[in-house]
Amino acid sequence: MTQDAEMKELPAPLSSSSSSVSPSTIQNLKEIVSLIETGAYAREVRRIVRAIRLTMALRRKLKASVLSQFLNLVLPTGSEVHTRLSSFLPKEDDCEMDVDTATQAPAKHHLPEIEIFCYLIVLIFLIDHKKYGDAKACASASIARLKNLNRRTVDVLASRLYFYYSLSYELTGDLAEIRGNLLALHRIATLRHDELGQETLLNLLLRNYLHYNLYDQAEKLRSKAPRFEGHSNQQFCRYLFYLGKIRTIQLEYTDAKGSLLQAAGKAPIAALGFRVQCNKWAIIVRLLLGEIPERTVFMQKHMEKALRPYFELTNAVRIGDLELFKIVAERFSSTFSSDRTNNLIVRLRHNVIRTGLRNISISYSRISLADVAQKLRLDSANPIADAESIVSKAIRDGAIDATVDHANGWMVSKETGDIYSTNEPQAAFNSRIAFCLNTHNEAVRALRFPPNSHKEKESAEKRRERQQQEQELAKHIAEEDDDDF
Amino acid sequence: MDPKLTEVSQHFERFKAALVRHDYDSCDNLLSQLKVFLTGFRSLPPLFEDTPNAVEELTIARNIYEHAVLLSVKVEDQGAFERDFFQLKPYYTDAHNRLPPSPQEYPILGLNLLRLLVQNRIAEFHTELELLSPSALENPCIKHAVELEQSFMEGAYNRVLSARQTVPHETYGYFMDLLAKTFSFILYAFSAISRDEIAGCSEKAYDYLSINDACQMLLFSSDQELLDYVKEEHPEWEVTNGNVYFQKAKESGPCKEIPSLQLINQTLSYARELERIV
C-alpha cells in the first residue's frame, strides 16, 4: 500500500522563485522560516501553505548536518525541543557553523509555528532515511506538543504532521496502535474548527480502518463525521478513494464508480501509484456493473504494466468465458490478493456468466438449454436445471430479453426492438448533459481569487492604514477567542 | 483459582447441562446471570486489562458467548443472535493474540454469514467476508456460505437447495449434535426465499408452465400446495388446463407516449444552467 506515500506532494511549482543562484539548502530553509514568521504574525495561512510547498521541494536535499545546523539556528539552544530533536539526528563532527550563519546572529524568538516546523522537517528527514523507530518517537512527541497548541496558523503544519505520524506507524505496521490517538485528535480538531485537520484526520482514520479491512467501522465513521470540501485537493482525492472502496464492498457500485473515477481524475499527475490504485478499483467496479472499460483505460501512460492483470480479467469478462476467467484469476491471484481485490473478483463470476449469456442470446434466436449449459461451461451435477434457473434470473433482472420454453427445454430470444423508438437515447443524452453541466459548475466553484485583485492598487499609505486596522481586528478576535476557552 | 471464576464456571456447567436438556427457559435465566458475572471481569473487552487470570477469563467468556449464539439459534431469535454475535466478535478479532483460537470460531462465523444471507443483508455479508483471511475462506463452514451466496446471485437455485444436503456436518463437530435441526431451519428459510425468487423469475421467463413442472420448480410436494400458494401470493397467475399461465402478469407493450412533463423539466433545467454560464 504505497499509493498514498507516492501521492504525498506535488513537485512545488513555486520553487523557481528562489532558485536563480541556487542558494544553499540552509539558505532555503531560512527563507522558509521567514515566510512562516510573516505568516504567523500576519495570520495569513496562505503563506504557511506556501512555506510547506517549498519545503517539499527541498526534501531530497536534506542532510543531517544541514538539519542540525538549522536547528541550532532557529531554536534556542538548550531548550527542550532543541535537545529532543537533535537527539534524533546522527552526530556529525562539523561543529563549526558556516560563516554565513555566524554573521547573521539571528534573533532566537520562540514561535510555536517554527517549533512545529522543526518537528515536521526532522520527521520527514527520518522517514526518508528509513529510521522508522526514531520517526515514531519524533512523531509522537510532536503530536503531544500539538495537543497543547491552539493557533490557526499551526493548523496547516499540524495536518502535515498528522499525516507523517500515521505514515511512520504504517511503515512499521503498527497502525492499529494509533487509532485511539487519531480519534482523539479528530475530536480536538473538530472542537477547534480546524477543518483541514479534520479532513486529514478523517482520511487517516479511514485509511487506518481499511488497512485492517474494517469496512463497517469505516463507513460508520464516514457517515457521521462532518465533511469539508476544497481545503486540500489531495485530501479530497483520498477521501473519494476510500469512499469508493467502502461503497464497492457494500455493493453500491454506481456510487462507487462515481467516487473512484472522480478520485482518479482529480489526483495530480505525479501521484502515479494512487491513480493506478484508483483505476484498478474503478475497473473492477465497472465490470461488476456490467460495463466493459475501454481499451484506453489500460493504455494510460506508465500504467500498462500495473493494469495488465486487470486487462486480462476484463478480456475474460468481455468474452464471457468462465474457463478463461478462472485461469486469469488463478494466474494473477498473487497480484489480486496484494491489491485485496480477491473477494471482488470472486463476485465477478456472476458477471462472466451474464455476459456469456447475453452473447448467446444475441447470436441465437433459439437454443436448447443443454447447449447453453455447455457454452457457459457450467460444471455442476445438473447443468440443464442450472442453466434454466440462471437464464430465468437473467431474464428477470433484464440482462437478456427472452423466454424459456420448459416443455421443450429451450430458450427463445425476443426480437430486439429499435432502441431509437424508446426513450433510451433521450435518457442517455440527458445524463451526459447533466455530467457536463456539473463539471462546469464544479470548476467554477473551485476557482480561487486572490483577495482584492479586482480593486485598484491602493496607495502605500492607505495600505498601511488598512493593515493596521486588520491587525487590530484580528487581535480583538483573538482575544475574544481566548475568552471563549 | 479465583473464586469468581469458579462460580462462573459452575454456572456455565449448569447452563450447558440445561442446553443439552433443551430446557431453554432455565438456559435463558442462567445466561443472563452469566452475562452479569462477566461484567465483573476487567480483562474482557473493551478494557483488556492484564489481570493474572486474563487467559482463563477470556476463554470462559468466549465460550459463554459462543453458547449464547448457539442458544439464540436454537430458540430462533435472530435479534439475540445478532447481539450475542457482536459481543463475541471482539474475542475473535481483538483478542486473537491473547488466546489460542477457538475451534468453534469458523462454524460460528459461517453461521453468521448464513444468517446475513437469510436476512438478505448482502452488503453486510460482504463486509464480514472482507474481514476473513484467505485461510479462513478455505474453511468448509465459510466456503459453504460463500458458495451459497454465489449460487444465489447467479440464480442457480437448485444448487442452493441441494446445499441443504451438503452442509459440512462433520466440520461443525461438537456443535453438530446441537445444531442438526438448526441447519435445516436456516436452510428451510432459504428455500422460502428461493421460492419467492424462483416465482419472480418464472413469471418473467416463462409464458406458461405445466402444473407438474411448476410444482417441481417451486418445491411443492402436491398440486394443492401450489394452488394455495398461487392464490395467496400471486393471484394474477391463471391456472387452466393443467397449466399455469403467467402471461397476464407481463407488462403491456412499450409505451409510445412522449414523457412531456419530464422533457419540459429537463429543457428548463438546461436553459437555467446555460443562463448561468453565459
From TrEMBL, chain A:
S-adenosyl-L-methionine in keyword set: no
Keyword field contains Transferase: no
InterPro entries with a match to the protein in the record: CSN3, PCI_dom, PSMD3_C, TPR_PSMD3_N, WH_DNA-bd_sf
GO MF assignments: enzyme regulator activity
Entry keywords, A to Z: Proteasome
Similarity field: Belongs to the proteasome subunit S3 family.
Known partners and oligomeric status: Component of the 19S regulatory particle (RP/PA700) lid subcomplex of the 26S proteasome. The 26S proteasome is composed of a core protease (CP), known as the 20S proteasome, capped at one or both ends by the 19S regulatory particle (RP/PA700). The RP/PA700 complex is composed of at least 17 different subunits in two subcomplexes, the base and the lid, which form the portions proximal and distal to the 20S proteolytic core, respectively. Interacts with UCH1 and UCH2.
Role played: Acts as a regulatory subunit of the 26 proteasome which is involved in the ATP-dependent degradation of ubiquitinated proteins.
GO cellular component: proteasome regulatory particle, lid subcomplex
Protein's recorded name: PCI domain-containing protein
SMART domains: PAM (SM00753), PINT (SM00088)
Basic and acidic residues biased stretches: 453-478
Region (Disordered): 1-22, 449-485
A Gene Ontology biological process term: ubiquitin-dependent protein catabolic process
Organism: Cucumis sativus
Domain PCI: 237-418
UniProtKB/TrEMBL annotation, chain B:
Organism: Cucumis sativus
Swiss-Prot/TrEMBL keywords: Proteasome
Residues that span the membrane, as ranges: none
Protein family according to the UniProt entry: Belongs to the proteasome subunit S14 family.
Keyword Chaperone on entry: no
Pfam families noted in UniProt: CSN8_PSD8_EIF3K (PF10075)
Keyword NAD in annotation: no
Protein name: PCI domain-containing protein
InterPro entries, A to Z: 26S_Psome_Rpn12 (IPR006746), CSN8_PSD8_EIF3K (IPR033464), PCI_dom (IPR000717)
Domain PCI as annotated: residue spans: 79-262
PANTHER family referenced in this protein's UniProt entry, alphabetically: 26S PROTEASOME NON-ATPASE REGULATORY SUBUNIT 8
Any Gene Ontology biological process: proteasome-mediated ubiquitin-dependent protein catabolic process
